[in-house]
Design a protein that fits this description.
The chain is built from nine helices and 21 strands. By secondary structure, it is an alpha+beta fold.
């Protein structure tokens, strides 16, 4: 096991495109860190630079106290698991797992021990004589993981290893990977575009966009306290709703004005909690964005605060069993989502009153990367 540190790491291609821009991250010994973001954000390029499969244009990569910028991939003491498994089709499971050790001239008894131990950990003992074509997708992925385990590396690198699996198998394999890490405690860097996968697997998640780290923290801290609007939108299912409007000061305090009217012609206005006055005072009279998780938009109950309610027409409902995703909208914001209990009685095409949990609302500067204006409490 080893600490992995990336200091101001950059990747600039000959055509002038900068895929990774000043990446700084220190990964603790035994930590499971997930790089997550949309396609083209630079996460896989960063992983490939750590592996030595891409040259580093600037900065420094340190693995276990050794700078590895110019070290050949095979000498970095890391093991990588790819999206496409990369198994040898003509070899048995045993030989696939043993092959890298044979190339390193590891003694046969040691190879036997490592392969058998890995097979036991991964539940592959009964499959060691099979060829890859005789295995399911999940079994092939476990073989690929086993091939990495037998090397006993300082760090594991995973490049979207579950992307080729069906939804149900992704969930079970994800749990197996997490249990495996808890058992082996090997430093792990994992790349995915799936934010749910990132949230469930990582000790920390690193949200990337445009080659930059937007936020690096524990999954729940990123969810509860996103640094900016991009992170807030990317992390969470269904995604966060955003209302663009302005702040006004009334006799009773700050009010968010959405800028359009409800089905009865009444302006959408939401009272802002008094505890937010200090943070938002400078934005009175200016554009601002309110971020609302779907769980923050509730079907109104008698006695709810009328200054935090919106009447919106139900456009579509998606029953999920114990909950329903309700698609709503205003004349200005046409794609809002509320997640309500499965017992809620709502009718498509009919208006309904919703209470907004403004105490839990986020407030952002305008723009895709507008910063979160509320400092973590």
């Amino acid at each position: 096991m080893a600490e992995v540190t990336l200091t101001n790491v950059r990747k600039l291609y000959p055509n002038g495109f900068e895929a990774v821009k000043g990446f700084d991250l220190s990964i603790r010994d035994g930590e499971f860190v997930v790089l997550v973001g949309p396609s083209g954000c630079g996460k896989s390029t960063t992983l490939r630079m750590v592996a030595g499969l891409e040259d580093v244009s600037g900065g420094e990569i340190n693995i276990g106290g050794r700078v590895v910028n110019d070290v050949h991939p095979k000498d970095r003491d890391i093991a990588m698991v790819f999206q496409n498994y990369a198994l040898y089709p003509h070899m048995s499971v045993y030989k696939n797992m043993a092959f890298a050790l044979q190339l390193r001239k590891v003694p046969k008894p040691e190879i036997e021990r490592r392969v058998r131990d890995a097979a036991k950990i991964l539940g592959l003992e009964a499959l060691l004589e099979r060829k890859p074509k005789q295995l399911s997708g999940g079994q092939r992925q476990r073989v690929a993981v086993g091939r990495a385990i037998v090397r006993e590396p300082k760090a594991f690198l995973f490049d979207e290893p579950l992307s080729n699996l069906d939804a149900k198998l992704r969930v079970t394999t994800r749990a197996e990977l997490k249990a495996l890490h808890l058992r082996l405690k090997t430093t792990t860097i994992y790349v995915t575009h799936d934010q749910e996968e990132a949230m469930t697997l990582g000790d920390r998640i690193v949200v990337m966009s445009n080659g930059l780290i937007q936020q690096a923290d524990t999954p729940m801290e990123v969810y509860r306290h996103p640094n900016n609007r991009f992170v807030a939108a990317f992390v969470g299912t269904p995604p966060m709703n955003f209302l663009e409007g302005t702040l006004e000061r009334s006799a009773s305090g700050l009010v968010f004005v959405e800028g359009s009217n409800d089905p009865d012609g009444k302006a959408y206005r939401l009272a802002v909690p008094g505890k937010r006055d200090a943070a938002l005072a400078a934005f009175v009279g200016k554009p601002i964005v309110v971020g609302l998780r779907p769980q923050m938009i509730h079907v109104a109950n008698p006695g709810d605060d009328a200054t935090r309610q919106m009447t919106m027409t139900v456009r579509v409902t998606e029953p999920l069993g114990d909950s329903i995703d309700v698609f709503l909208g205003t004349p200005k914001h046409t794609h809002l989502v509320s997640r309500v209990p499965g017992t809620a009685q709502l009718h498509i095409g009919q208006p309904a009153v919703f209470t907004i949990d403004m105490d839990a609302a986020h407030f952002f500067e305008p723009g895709e990367f507008g910063k979160n204006l509320i400092v973590k409490q």
